[in-house]
Amino acid sequence: MAVSTVLFVSGVTTLLHTSFGSRLPLIQGPSFVYLAPALAIINSPEFLGLNENKFKHIMKELQGAIIIASTFQALLGYSGLMSVFVRLINPVVVAPTIAAVGISFYSYGFPLVGNCIEIGAGQILLVIIFSLYLRKVYVLGHRVFLIYAVPLGLGITWAAAFLLTEAGAYSYKGCDVNIPASDIISGHCRKHVSRMKHCRVDTSHALRSSPWFRFPYPLQWGTPIFNWKMALVMCVVSIISSVDSVGSYHATSLLVASRPPTPGVLSRGIGLEGLSSILAGLWGTGTGSTTLTENVHTIAVTKIGSRRAIEVGACILILLSLIGKVGGCIASIPEVMVAALLCFMWAMLTALGLSNLRYSEAGSSRNIIIVGLSLFFSLSIPAYFQQYGISANSNLSVPSYFQPYIVASHGPIRSKYGGLNYVLNTLLSLNMVIAFLVAVILDNTVPGSRQERGVYEWSEREAARSEPAVSKDYELPFRVGRIFRWVKWVGL
């Protein structure tokens, strides 16, 4: 159900954003930026005592937090405040902030891959070989291995895991993979339970139990629960998401050989990202929706900057979301393969974040110190906060890669205001929040020339309106823009 919902909302928001947002060929989808705070909420100790409908209760809490944060982001964009806020955002701020999102999940990657090393490591090697060693190999005039490195690696590994499962490589005498680990008495089975759980492809019943057709609908988990503590955390994260999008807008405009958007167009794009995330909250995806940094790289690789291609892809996502078996098939992918896939994707996200430094003087000692401090403190400060969550919950049956996100109620900040403790302990344990705070403070207080800082250049509104090519790229379709021309802060 959740996968179909994500496909549906991703398709709808992509279609909306491509048509009425920044008019740049960017794909929208669930953001990694929202993943860390979502994990913090899911693993919050206040939910550990729930026995009935725990999943639905957590999803309703997430829905409420995402809806409030998305409304804040929409107001940030459509009110014109984003045009003012963007003056604080430069490549030296964007680079470590996005990079911190990628490196923050290092503990989830290979530690989980190691549970079935032949499957996980094999998939990582395949993706590396396809994307690097075979990147210049053409098949029918296309660099197939570079463009489809991830789906090819996933498909081949998935097929190999299926054949090994069917051949009995992960079957052990007298052991049943469907029996919970806590109920296993035999020492022989306990020894192999991890391999059975992580290597086999038939441990999930998602494909078998999913319906053939299902229409995702809003409020499917129930009425959202609005909690100001969680909403405040998500509001800060929505600002991080906007910072990510600012860098993506600028980079994409250069890739498609267009003038950078005006501050009004940028604000309009951020505003629509907020509206898209409200849809994600209403449909209960569990994360917000934002411009995906990885798709900047996709445009660079494929050389395709057509909005029509993105709109067709969005329609395909919407159609696939109606077929329950498609969602069930995706949900049945073994967790170790997901971790191997994310090892590559998060590494890409980190590198793409740092690539923003090319718009500034990357060799400047000023920038080196700011970026270095931002990245180091984005790992070190959260580690200090997270150790309290781990030590306080050492007896809980929570996977090691989720333990850092249980810090909310056990962090070092312990004032008499419980809500404030929750917000500060959670925010300061999130890597990208620390990276953003350190970078934005230092970059805007340490003297440096515009060239050294790599200040993003945005097109002037009047100059953009006088150029037909720029108007074609950023004008709203169906003459909608004429209605809103008086709204200068979100117009062309």
Describe this structure in words.
The chain has 492 residues and is mostly helical. It is built from 23 helices and two strands. A two-stranded antiparallel sheet has the order 1-2. Helix 5 (91-103) packs antiparallel against helix 20 (431-445). The longest helix is centred in the middle third of the chain and has 28 residues, at 228-255. The protein is globular and about 75 Å long. Belongs to the nucleobase:cation symporter-2 (NCS2) (TC 2.A.40) family. The chain crosses the membrane at residues 31-50, 62-82, 88-108, 115-133, 145-164, 312-333, 339-356, 368-385, 422-442. Its main location: membrane. Keywords: Membrane, Transmembrane, Transmembrane helix.
Number of helices: 23
Binned, the helix content reads: 55-70%
Cα separation of the termini = 40 Å
Question: Helix- and strand-based class?
Answer: mainly alpha
Show unreliable segments. none
The outline comes out as globular
Our Rg estimate from Cα atoms comes to 23 Å
Work out the strand percent: under 5%
Q: What is the residue-averaged pLDDT?
A: 81
* Largest sheet, spatial ordering of strands: 1-2
Largest sheet: 2 strands, antiparallel
Quick structural summary:
With 492 residues, this protein is mainly alpha-helical.
Please supply descriptive tags for the structure shown above.
23 helices; about 500 residues
